[in-house]
């Protein structure tokens, strides 16, 4: 977990963002690449982790 705390950028799948490994972390922004691919519900798994959501 120290690696995540020290990182400027953390990459994850949408389902991984809701996993126990980073459950207690929050971020400045969540960027969903290829946002037309996942369902809206899948996006919300990661979206609650940050005050900013960017769909690309």
Task: Show the helix and strand layout.
Blueprint (H helix, E strand, L loop, with lengths): L1 H5 L7 H4 L11 E4 L7 H8 L4 E4 L1
Parallel strand pairs: 1-2
Pfam families: AAA_11
InterPro entries: DNA2/NAM7_AAA_11, P-loop_NTPase
GO molecular function: helicase activity
Task: Give a structural overview.
- The protein is an alpha+beta fold and 56 residues long.
- It has one domain (2-55).
- Helices cover 30% and strands 14% of the residues.
- The mean pLDDT is 87.
What is shown here, in short?
30% of the residues lie in helices and 14% in strands.
Number of strands: 2
Distance between the termini: 28 Å
Structural class call reads alpha+beta
| Helical run tally | 3
The biggest sheet, with number of strands, parallel, antiparallel or mixed sense and barrel status, is:
2 strands, parallel
How much helix, percentage-wise, in residues?
Answer: 25-40%
Q: Which characteristics define this entry?
A:
P-loop_NTPase, helicase activity, DNA2/NAM7_AAA_11, globular, alpha+beta, DNA2/NAM7 helicase helicase domain-containing protein, 56 residues
């Amino acid at each position: 977990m120290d690696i995540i705390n020290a990182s400027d950028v953390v990459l994850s799948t949408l389902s991984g963002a809701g996993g126990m490994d980073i459950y207690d972390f929050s971020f400045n922004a969540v960027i969903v690449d290829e946002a037309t691919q996942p369902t809206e519900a899948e996006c919300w798994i990661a979206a609650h982790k940050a005050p900013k959501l960017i769909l690309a």
